Amino acid sequence: MKRIISLLMENEPGALSRVVGLFSQRGYNIETLTxxxxxxxxxxxxxxxTIGNDHKIEQITKHLNRLVDVVKLVDLTEGSHIERELxxxxxxxxxxxxxxxxxxxxxxxxxxxxxxASVYTxxxxxxxxxxxxxxxxxxxxxxxxxxxxxVSGIARGEKVLGL
Amino acid sequence: xxxxxxxxxxxxxxxxxxxxxxFGYPGGAALHIYDAIFRQKDVKHILVRHEQAATHxxxxxxxxxxxxxxxLVTSGPGATxxxxxxxxxxxDSIPMVVISGQVVSDKIGEDAFQETDMVGVSRPIVKHSFxxxxxxxxxxxxxxxxxxASTGRPGPVVIDxxxxxxxxxxxxxxxxxxxxxxxxxxxxTKGHTGQIKKAVQQxxxxxxxxxxxxxxxxxxxxxxxxxxxxxxxxxxxxNTLMGLGAYPGTDAQFLGMLGMHGTVEANTAMHHADxxxxxxxxxxxxxxNTPNKFCPSAKIIHIDVDPASISKTxxxxxxxVGPVDSVLDEMLELINATNERPDEKAIENWWxxxxxxxxxxxxxxxPRYDTTGEMLMPQEVIRTLFEVTKxxxxxxxxxxxxxxxxxxxxxFDKPRRWVNSGGLGTMGxxxxxxxxxxxxxxxxxxACVTGEGSIQMCIQELSTCLQYHLPVKIIxxxxxxxxxxxxxxxxxxxSRYSESLYEDSLPDFVxxxxxxxxxxxxxxxxxxxxSKMEECFAMKDKCVFMDIYVDPKEHVYPMQVAPNGSMRxxxxxxxxxx
Lengths: 163, 578
Ligand SMILES: Cc1cc2nc3c(=O)[nH]c(=O)nc-3n(C[C@H](O)[C@H](O)[C@H](O)COP(=O)(O)OP(=O)(O)OC[C@H]3O[C@@H](n4cnc5c(N)ncnc54)[C@H](O)[C@@H]3O)c2cc1C
Ligand SMILES: Cc1ncc(C[n+]2csc(CCOP(=O)(O)OP(=O)(O)O)c2C)c(N)n1
Ligand SMILES: [Mg+2]
Fold this sequence. Notes:
The complex is a heterodimer.
Chain A: E1 2-10, H1 15-25, E2 32-37, E3 43-51, H2 54-66, E4 70-75, E5 81-92, H3 96-107, E6 111-115, E7 119-126, H4 128-138, E8 143-148, E9 152-155
Antiparallel strand pairs in A: 1-3, 1-4, 2-3, 5-7, 5-8, 5-9, 6-7
Chain B: E1 3-5, H1 6-16, E2 21-24, H2 31-38, E3 44-47, H3 51-65, E4 69-73, H4 77-81, H5 83-91, E5 96-102, H6 118-122, E6 128-131, H7 138-150, E7 156-162, E8 171-173, H8 193-204, E9 209-213, H9 215-219, H10 223-233, E10 237-239, E11 254-257, H11 264-272, E12 275-279, H12 285-288, E13 299-304, E14 318-321, H13 324-336, H14 344-361, H15 378-388, E15 394-397, H16 401-409, E16 418-419, H17 430-440, E17 446-450, H18 462-467, E18 473-478, H19 483-492, H20 509-515, E19 519-523, H21 526-538, E20 544-549, E21 559-560, E22 570-571
Parallel strand pairs in B: 2-3, 2-4, 4-5, 5-7, 6-7, 9-10, 9-12, 10-11, 12-13, 13-14, 15-16, 15-17, 17-18, 18-20, 19-20
Antiparallel strand pairs in B: 1-8, 21-22
Helix pairs in contact in B: 1-2, 1-7, 3-5, 3-17, 8-13, 10-13, 11-14, 15-16, 15-21
The structure holds flavin-adenine dinucleotide, thiamine diphosphate (TPP) and magnesium ion.
């Protein structure tokens, strides 16, 4: 099962490599990873998605918590949460395809953010499934380049990941 | 406020932390620090002959005293030579602070002379690490390092110090913080009271209880509490390799070690137990044998300060996260406060069963090694060591068959007397760790039990022993082979001894000892073993090497049947099984 783990860690050199190193060292997978400083500049927020059964996820969270740089951690998938990912995708758009691609973008509520005579660059946000769906809808043949940000997430309601 | 250079700040901070000894080896990037050492008297430095030995010596010091061991090495090769010892300490949760010199700050990343990314290289084998970037951070970093290394689940911490940070010219205010708080590091200081109550309830209804105690009880100084609980409830106790001494080895309630080379009675009792109190033990694969066959009918109570140790390989029914001493204290209070006791009849029957196993299979009650043959047996060597030292020596072991024989045949009544590398199994650990122990206990009998294979991995330290007058007694159980490897080759590879024999290339250890300025003895006969060993230990101020020739064919038994065996499935000899 896919899990989204989000954590606050000391905004210090080496902290990220400890998190990433833990995954390779213990044979866990990282599917996506995003990290950026927070409003409190001494802290970074890191969100990662990984796949594993309950036992594996429990081990992962325990080992992450054990890292001295990790201040706080939440498995967002345990409660209701919002998940977003940004995708930018460059597709070939010529002739009849131009209108077809444009319609597809509208259906998925994406935006065309750059245009040339033969190429559209499209931006799309949503959960990972939606991005996958768009990707399939446009069709392999047309796709020139894809860049995805990795998943960010936040809990719904009053729940806050803070100090 | 006094103003000091970075190098002086570093050493003064160590002194203020209470460090009396550091083990190390100098080199370019550490020279400012070494100069600071020269100009003071509080911290004594021990010059080893290889950085690996510095880490093992600091490790032995830590294991035998409970204090944090300290190491100082230079950058590059000095740092990488320390890696094996850091990994050894990490696997056995030993508190250690390793200070490594680093190239000057503005050369980092340029492949400068003797540059190694120490923080990067050591990352998977440290509890934490620091790269110091400013003289003003040194004192606080030292404080943090010792705090992290010695609290919670102990472990090694690296402080990497670029050379410019210790230069003698720039001076700064010195202040050593008395206390430190880290928002991201808060080890448990107490167990969950509800869980502890539940555990005690479970213990009081046990009919076939077992206490399985590990290195955490030694590290957490909780032997007294553990012994009290076992005595009050009349529960049988087994120790892991790392836990030996946590419960008195000569006590009747002690069943010996458990696991791969544990006793049949300990492993069989574990297998049939209905309640297991696991304390400071981590269900290692050398203990559990096949995990899904492990103790099928037991409710498992697991006390450990590190949540990641709990339910890692074997699920716990009642997990308790907390330090062993305080959790066991609370348990004792609860047991004292109630009249409830486990069913006396049931416990009596349980003991009857256990004693039957013990009488039938016990390695001490019914010795299985042959003492009628021409050659000495390794087991007799350890039994003789036990007798000659009256069970009261510090025993530092290397890795191999001799290590297992020591664990089986030397009964440790006190914690911190048995010093060995369990998790990593590092050959070469024995002699340097014995030096660290002897430095901390100048008048004690310190034995290094080793094999002719292991001893050669850090033999250069004989020179250190001379420099610091360390009268370590080296008991070399010489089976003329990498015995443990050869045993596995006998059992699994039809005795094809691929690279486990030396073909008459062993050095003359007696002459070697003389060359190093020590005393060497060779023993080959049964009737001279005891008297020579007494002679050896009577030389109180000499480092002595006893090269004891033993039967090269002997295997370590009992031994769990693997793969797919349960705890109680064991080989008793080359041909018999439980
Ligand atoms: C050749 C060879 C053969 C071996 N055969 C065996 C064998 O037959 N039997 C055997 O037992 N081992 C054997 N070992 C050793 C084995 O590999 C492990 O090192 C050992 O079993 C681990 O011991 P432990 O469970 O006590 O854990 P340790 O490694 O000692 O870990 C201690 C545990 O206690 C916790 N802890 C630490 N401090 C505290 C505290 N204050 N409060 C609470 N918890 C704390 C830690 O978090 C950790 O989980 C062998 C090793 C070698 C090299
Ligand atoms: C550094 C290192 N290399 C290899 C091993 C694998 N190993 C385990 S026991 C052993 C043989 C040890 O021989 P010796 O010291 O003579 O002890 P014996 O088993 O003969 O008592 C070896 C090679 C190890 N544990 N450590
Ligand atoms: Mg040998």
